[in-house]
Amino acid sequence: MERENRDDTAGGGGESETQPVISSVRDDKEDELEGSAAKTKSDSVNEPGEAEHPEQNDTTTGGESEIKSLPSTTKERVLPELTLVLIGDTNSIEVGSKNILLDHDEQTQQFSSSLYDLCGRHISVINMLGQQNTDKFPLNQGVHAFLLLLPNGLQNSHYSSGVQWLEKTFGKESLAYLMTVVTHGSDEECDRALADLKANSSFVEKRYHTCTKSMREENEIAALLEKIDVMVSENDPHCYNGLTCGENKEHEEEETSDSSVFHQNQTADQMQNRGATTEIKCEPVNEPGDAENSEKNDESTKAGGEPEVMSTIPLASSEKGLDTSAGETDEDKQINNENSSNMSERSPEDCDTPRDTSSTSRTVSTVTKELDQQEERAATTEEKSDPVNDSGDAEAKEKGTFDMDMGGNMDQLSVKISEEINRKNQRQREIETLFHRLHLHNKHHQKLSPADFPKIGPPVKQDHDTSEKDLAHTFVQRLMMLDYRARYIPVRQDTAEVSQSTSVPVAENVNTEESVLDDFFSTSVDRGLSKQTHIHPMDIQMAVFHCSDSFLKQNMMTKLSQCQYALPLLVPDPVTMYIECPLWTFRKIRKTWKITQTKDNSNIITMKSLPICEAEIPMVSFFRLGSLSVSKSQLINSLINDRHNTFFHRNCPGSTKSRHLMDGVAEIAWYCPAGKPNAAFTDCTAFCNLHGDALTIEKQRDILIEKSSVNVVLLSTPKKGDKSAPVFSDLLKSSKPLICLIVDDSCDAVEVKKGKFKMGLKDRSQSDVSEELKRIIGEILSGPHTSFQLETMAKVSGIRVDEDDAVCQKGKSAAMKIMNLLQETNVSRIKDKFLPCQGRLWHEWCRINKELYHLRGNTEKDKSEKQKELMTIRQKQCDASCSELMKLFIESLSSLPSTDKEYFLKWTQILIDALSTDDLNSILQSYHDKWSEVLALKKKHDKSDQLNRKQTELEQISTKLQAATFGLEHIFREMGQIYEAHKSLQKQTQRRQTDWSKYPELAAELMISGHPMELMDGDAGHVPLTWISSLLEEVIKRLGDQRVFVLSVLGVQSSGKSTMLNAMFGSQFAVSAGRCTKGAFMQLVKVSEEMKKDFRFDYVLVVDTEGLRALELAGNTTPHHDNELATFVVGLGNMTLINIFGENPADMQDILQIVVQAFMRMKKVKLSPSCVFVHQNVTDIAAAQKNMDGKRRLQEKLDQMAQLAAKEEVCDAECFSDVIAFDVQKDVKYFAQLWEGSPPMAPPNPGYSDSVQELKNIILSKASQSPGITLSQFKSKVQDLWKALMNEHFVFSFKNTLEIKVYRNLEVQYGNWTWALRSNMLTIENQLYNRIENGKLDKVELSYLSKEMSKTYGEIKKEMRKYFDDDRDKEMLVQWRGQFENKIKEFHDEQVRGVKRKLDEVIQQKTACKKLDGQKTEFENKLLQKSKELAQQLKDKTQAEEELKKQFDSVWRGWVRELTADIKPIEDINLEDDQLTILEELGFEWAVIDGSKSSGRYKNISEIGDYSDYVTLTKYQEDCEENQQSEDEKKAKTCTKRQGGYSWRTPWVYFQTLIGFVPTQQKESHTSKRSLPFEEQNHFRSLTDELERQTIKIITNKPVPTSGYSPTYLLEVAKNVKEKVTAFESKRKYALKKEFTVDLLLYVFDRAKRWLSESHKKFKMKNDALIYLENKKHQYYNIFRSFCKGSSSAVVLGELICEKLKVSAVEAVCKKTAIDVAGEMRCSFPAFKGNRLNLEKHVLKSLAEKEDFRGFITYIHQPREQVERFIKEEVKKYIFTPHKDKARDILKKNVEDMKQFVSQALFTATERVKTQRGYTDMWLEEFTSLLKDELMFEAICSQNFRDINNFDFLKEEIEKGLVPIMKETSSLSLNNMSEFRLTPDQILIDQLCKCCWVTCPFCAAVCTNTIEDHSPDDHSVPFHRPSGINGWHYRGTVELVIDFCTTLVASDKFFHPHYDSDEIIPYKQYQKGGDKYAQWKITADESKLTYWIWFVCRFQEQLEDHYKLKFQGCGEIPGEWRKHSKEEAIQSLEAIYNQ
Fold it and tell me: For residue 572, what are the β-bridge partners?
């Protein structure tokens, strides 16, 4: 719609005619117009600090303007970056001076200084808390957020009312800008607030925050601001622009949607008057906030007008630089230049006041709407106005608007103003378009940061076109990969609007010959094309630069410098045009060069390496005056590096005429000489290039002229009146040397006057010009000249320096506090003075710790002493841990916000590097000189003391160099050591000291943010496990237990490993400051969201390492260290990059051998990393044939190394592929050399970047097939690998705790699966048992049992599949899958076979008792008949109970005699008499038998410690008498103390020592009697245990329960024992006393006694007719009595059935309860619900609590017996004490189930009989059939009850009788379960004890594997114990062994595999001792279980007495051991389960 412009001014009636012309170009931009007009009119320049503001209209002048001054307050006002409005309850905040958000209680708007101090941002806070009337708060600016403050506890009600008020007051649109803040007291919790607020539908969780009412916590407010920023970025528009509160809704709807200012119309006269005044008088000079000036309300607009609005678009330059000037007319240039000049004047003189660095971000993003509206209004007005055709018309129209005395120049002024505004608008559109095309328009609020780029994203391909939207990211990614082709990215145009060279336009309408020539050269084709071209490469670079935060800018600049590109030194803001010097971005750049100096006719070359900011060097600046055809940038390139485009120029690929962001930018680059004769310059020289016309870019030009050592100007020959004349004149007058290059002159180079040179460029080649220019510059710089230092730019006035930002200064200030401490200290002393924990103390700790794995002598005593030393060192570290440096560092790290902290760390590293640079350079130079002297002497073969002296001096310099190497990593290392020291001692931090417990949190935050963390200390060669573990735990807390793919790298020193990783992943591994990587560092690299779908992990964890074969300056590196490092790194990585420098096989030999051996070790410990070989610095990587040859040679070398390593590691491997999956075609990558030419001026080779990308693709392709590992698994891996590496034998020492943990969880699952099978099988067994007893089953088939189990078995297999397929550790579980599936199948089959076997025995018993059962039935029938007859006889005679009882008893005895007349009763057995008889029959004297019986010693024969009393001397005495005593003594003296037996060779000495007879001199020192060797003691115990097992097996296989006992059973046992003892004795070198055989026989008899007695008792109870009848007496008396009382047959039958049900129901309930109680305990009782190891822990805990030594001895020698005893005890306690209620509930439930079952059977039987009209026998048949599976029910003869016809009555009678039975059963004692076949303890024993019981051959610790036969896995136990506990002692002594097995296998001691063997085997190779040793995996471990230490000390005397040995000499108990309490011992058992 067109707008009508009216003339409302007080005078000048003709002025209305010209009004539209002015308004058409003003509108939003009128302020810029005013400034431009004023600038054109006035010659003076505004002083700094003046601002551009509209004047107030003076209505009294009738339209004539009066010049007025603006108030200072108005000038200084800046638009706030954020405007926040506080609404809500005043009680929700405590206003005060320390309140960061609101430090006043006035309801006004003001900038918050506290918020500015916090974040360096201008934030306006409007306090509207508690306000209902908002009239006095006109919102004349955009509101970014309404903060609704709610007091905790009232949030729900206040939230609703607050939202309603906001919507009513400001409109519904305001709700999108609402942030809810719940405030609480400092001691309050507000966890419920969020949950409460979620109930409101309008509540948005991510726009919610909590903080304290005082609002003093910086982190809380910072977090709030971050959330506000996110909300602002999400909202469109970014701020709420509603009208003043209270205005009507209509105005709200008409309001524009612009996001930065309110656009409101002005009346025509107001616009005209203001414009006239300002345009004439006001000169535009921008202050640091002028571009964002807010509007000023005009009071007069309230009557209907609208307030004046200032534009946010400043005046900007459209001037094109030299490289883009082609095609422009001189007039255009003139105008552009003037415009650009205006822009350059807009810089403030002083920028000390911090300001928002992102003015671009606010303005550019909103400028498009303003410009579009401006253009629309201008177009509309132009349509209504007459065009301005000539100067006269223009003058006439201008006259009505500008009342000035300007004469005929008014038309020019008007035209220039219009053109200037149009050009400015056009430029702003182009910039906005540029940012949109690059998809950077949304990166103004949320800048690009380094975190956006070190991510695993899609591959970057050089040969693929990139769309414009991806250009910025692709540029940064390639730059980070050191690809200098990042400037030349091929672009794929997304739209057809951009002109392309792929197709050529065709001209049309060429009709006649005459028009051919004209048409050919016409521009009609051009006019038909779009003006938009592809984006200029430098615009991409600068756009990314403007949209990046300071850290990404710094990274970009560092990479650009490495690419040998020029860097922006002075950068105009693209919108505000403020000049910025990004000094911060230069801070990480370090340049190295060689200075050539001539002294005594010889050249002396000195190397310098400095941070470029500190280098004082000459600078040569280049300028262009006017528009020229010569490329200035190209000329500079020829001076620096003519083969590389250091400065981008017009002839570079991708260059276009349209360049938007480079004009006014000054770039700088450096020439660094290499010390060669052909060097262009002898010293480092800076070259600066000002892009654009220096005539118009005054500010930058003046700065560079002032700073330069030499100025070089390119210009045309000046003519009189040229604008360049004054500038050139000033240059001539300057004292600075000047070189004038005249483009249109051909004169030779000439020095016109001192220091002033000129040279023509016309008709001269660039090489000639370059050489001449080098000569002149070199000549100038060889004399006195000024130097330039980058740091001095911070002092230049009128520009903004990024380091002046408050946040940067805050970080620097914190870093400077540290540096101030260090300034006065020599660098080589810094670490000793300020970082004491990591120096000598830490190195000493590492040395002693390693010695723990190589113990000699008295190992436990030595170990105890060393551990005490370690604790002493830790104490010293604690005492020294509070250095001032660490206090400051930790304080800053803890308190600074994240951005400040990042600055702090960067500054600290920068300043530390700068501090050590000079000293390091000096020391390195000294080292180089001294090394040269040593080499010279060696060449002369000088063997004098001089060579030794020089080498000693070299070592001293080397040590000094090590001390002088100081970086940020050393401070973090100190943190780790302080933490480890305090953690070891668990010291609580004192006041005023740092809280060490928070250190891992601080480090974890940094690691997550992308900082590398030290994994291995390179100086000490040690991994601080405690620190690393805690660090990773904190990372896990913050990120969760994320999966990571670990990529490690190995290679020789200085082979470019870190550089490669940095280029590949954007990591930050140190490659500068003159230091190589030492040790190992790790860094997390996140997988981008778009790539996560392709991977099964979330991060790549990159591990960088120090070089192998490093020339360590301290000379302390060994091949072992390299092997150690390689094994560690290879073991950690899912993939390892093997980095090889060059192609020489000789150079590869050592590293390949190390690497292959490391991979072989991984294979042996079942780790399977992959590898890729990287050949770096390969010259011709394109030669395929050469590559194939190289791969072949590598394959051969690897195979050769594999064979060598196989011999050393004792492994079968013929080639490398036997060791690891390796394909030489795919897993070898050739890398081009890094530099394209010779450093230091060589750029990186583009081929290197391509190689990096290709390698990255290979890595990610392989990684996509890997699940990685979790962070917790990585933590375990670090610990396992390092602990194993501490031992000499890595493979034997490696303990994969992660694998162990997964296996133990699998064991628990295995226990659950087997229990499910077992419990189901028990149920089936019960049912079939009942059927057999009920006579319903006489055969059991395996197929039937398998079918019955099939459902449960199928479910278990399904569960197993799910577990192995879905568990998070499935990759590790797969190795056991087949084994456990087989074990479950074996268990199932074993259960089926076992049940069949038991049921077959029951069937056999049933068959054997068939005759007796027939008799029982006959007995019962006769008894029933007799009872009935007797009752009939007495029915009418008496009813007295006593009389009836008497009558019944009198006839009962007769009945029994009658029924049993022909049956012989079964007699009781007398086992005692049988045993004695058998012993006498075997020939043993009564005295021996009686002695054993009376003493009772036989009962403990399996547990005694010394069997020497059973040995006699006579057997070998004759043979041994031949040996001479002197020879014996001589041999005895040669005895060495070795464990396990004796080392004497002569039988006599051996035998004497064995029995206790020793030479005199030996008896003096050991007076106690000698015991048998340990091995023999074990043989005795083994014999005893074996015979006990055989006896039990023999006896239990006898049919005692079915056929009864026979003395022949014991005789068979006795003969077996005697035979085995005889065989045992025949193999011994001594004879056994008869007492041993007697005691052993009595012992096994005693063990069999219980089973025999119980079994015979059961046999008698079931088969003795007399007993059977006596048991039936009560039953038949009741029948008799009932008949006597006249009861019907139904009543009697009911009673009979109830009597039978009573017995069977009790048994059935008890058996079911036994299964259920066992199941309940198996699932819930702590001791039984885990795996075998868990059970072990509880057994030991029970023993310790009772302090039962006898129980301990049983456990040590007969562990299974003790475990079974423990299970029985725990079941008994569970049933009768703490859990009796639960067990009772189980019993009651089973009783109730049984009652319902019987009732259902009664109902079913009755209904069926009624339905079929059956009789009693049918009813009984149906009833017993229904009971057959659950109850044993003896058959009842129906002939006595055939008169029953009312079966309902029978059912009722039985149900009535069941009530007391079930009640009685419910109240049964749970102890009754022990009377039946199934008991809970035996069920649990069968379940829990079916495991491995093999004991350690040294200490007898029991293997804790849950599976009985777990082959091929070795036996293992998490904690061993002192071998002396099992009786191990030193050969030839009575000294018990005190050492733990885990200590011994790490020591240098030996042992004898057999007691009588002279062979000695190192404990480190214990597997060679034989099968029993080889089957065990004993991992070397310095840790000890406190439990067994306590046991040895607590029961020392009992153990000594038990074994008749002593803890003395080598077996002396260390004093430290006695400090442990029983509580500590029990607590240490938890460590077992956590291992």
Answer: 579
Number of H helices, E strands in the chain: 69, 33
> For residue 1387, which amino acid is it?
F
Burial of 1699 (0-12, 13-18, 19+ CB in 10 A): middle
In b/e form, how buried is each residue of 1576-1588, taking b as 16+ CB within 10 angstroms? bbbbbbebbeebb
A 10 A CB-CB count for 651 gives: 11
What letter does residue 628 receive in the DSSP assignment? -
User: Sheet of 208-212: strands edge to edge?
Assistant: 109-111, 123-127, 82-88, 145-151, 178-184, 208-212
3-class SS at 375?
Answer: helix
The terminus-to-terminus CA distance of the chain in angstroms comes to: 81
pLDDT tens by residue, 1866-1880: 887 777 777 777 888
Least confident of 1008-1022, 1512-1526, 1701-1715: 1512-1526
Six token digits for residue 1232 = 């081009």
Tokens, residue 1225:
């075609």
- 1934-1973 as b/e, with b when 16 or more CB fall inside 10 Å? bbbbbbbbbbbbbbebbbbbebebeeebbbbebbebeeeb
pTM of the complete model: 0.68
| Residues 1892-1944 pLDDT 10s | 999 998 888 999 888 888 888 889 888 888 988 888 888 778 888 888 888 88
Cα–Cα nearest to 705, from 733, 684, 683, 724: 733
Which amino acid is located at 688 in the chain?
C
**Cα–Cα distance between 1417 and 1410 in angstroms, integer?**
11
**Is the predicted pLDDT of residue 1694 greater than 70, yes or no?**
yes
Cis peptide before 237 (omega within 30 of 0): yes
Per-residue tokens: 1084: 């997390």
SS3 68: coil
Whole-number Å distance between alpha carbons of 368 and 379? 16
Report residue 210: phi and psi, to 5°: -125, 145
Evaluate the CA torsion angle 324, 326, 328, 331 in order and state its sign: positive
Predicted pLDDT at 1361: 92
Contact 598, 675 (CB under 8 A): no
Q: Taking 70 as the threshold, does the pLDDT of residue 914 lie above it?
A: yes
Residue indicated by tokens 């209504």: 384
Q: Please give the Cα distance from 1887 to 1882 (Å, whole number).
A: 9
pLDDT at 359 over 80: no
User: Strand 1043-1051 and strand 1099-1105: pairing?
Assistant: parallel
Residues 954 and 950: their CA atoms lie apart, in Å, by 6
Q: For 291-309, what is each residue's pLDDT tens digit?
A: 333 333 333 333 333 333 3
For the chain, the 3-state helix, strand and coil shares in percent, each to the nearest 5, are: 55, 10, 35
* Lookup: tokens for 791: 């740091």
Nearest partner of 610 among 588, 642, 634, 578, judged by Cα: 588
Residue 218 region by backbone torsions, left for phi larger than 0, else alpha for psi between -120 and 50, else beta: alpha
- The pLDDT-based confidence of 127 (bands split at 50, 70, 90) is confident
For 1555, half-sphere exposure in the C-beta direction (CA atoms, 13 angstrom radius) is 18
Contacts of 1220 (CB under 8 A, 6+ apart): 1159, 1162, 1163, 1168, 1169, 1170, 1171
Please, which residues have CB within 8 angstroms of residue 1713's CB and are 6 or more apart in sequence?
A: 1783, 1786, 1787, 1790, 1870, 1873, 1880
Q: Please report the pLDDT score of residue 291 as a whole number.
A: 36
Q: How far apart are CA 669 and CA 691, in angstroms?
A: 14
CA distance 1284 to 493: 58
Does residue 1461 or residue 330 have the better pLDDT?
A: 1461
